[in-house]
Write a structure and sequence with these properties.
With 121 residues, the protein is of the alpha+beta class. The protein contains two helices and five strands; from the N terminus they run αββαβββ. A five-stranded antiparallel sheet has the order 3-4-2-1-5, with helices on one face. Helix 1 runs antiparallel to helix 2. The protein is globular.
């Protein structure tokens, strides 16, 4: 959710243009473990990572994306651009171990097979 929020917010705030959010899920077994988030806007200006200082309230968006996503980048798309990031679902962290007095509840993985969607922000 944070990655989606950062990419959409950056597109709207820094371009002043409407943005289109796309989430892509791989259909085959090899690709099913990756989720790709793309945010397209009509501004051709490339993204410019910034370094926030101290208590600045902005300037950390792409730094967060870089730290949380497995991969990210951008490409020209029509008259504008698309900024994307990918997260590998199969590399999910292990849940914390239960305390010795708590009952053990099995962890059931969520089903795969989600389909692509496009949403306008």
């Amino acid at each position: 959710m944070l990655l989606i929020s950062e990419l959409v917010t950056n597109a709207v705030v820094h371009t002043g243009c409407p943005a289109v959010l796309r989430m892509l899920f791989g259909p085959g077994a090899a690709e099913a473990g990756t989720v790709r988030v793309e945010v397209a806007d009509s501004c051709a200006r490339p993204p410019r990572p910034r370094r926030a200082a101290g208590e600045d309230t902005s300037g950390r968006g792409l730094e967060l994306v870089d730290g949380l996503a497995d991969r990210w980048g951008w490409k020209h798309e029509g008259a504008g651009k698309s900024i994307w990031c990918e997260v590998d679902r199969c590399a999910a962290p292990h849940p914390p171990l239960p305390s010795p007095t708590a009952p053990v509840t099995p962890v059931i993985p969520s089903p795969s097979g989600l389909t692509p969607g496009a949403y306008t922000a």
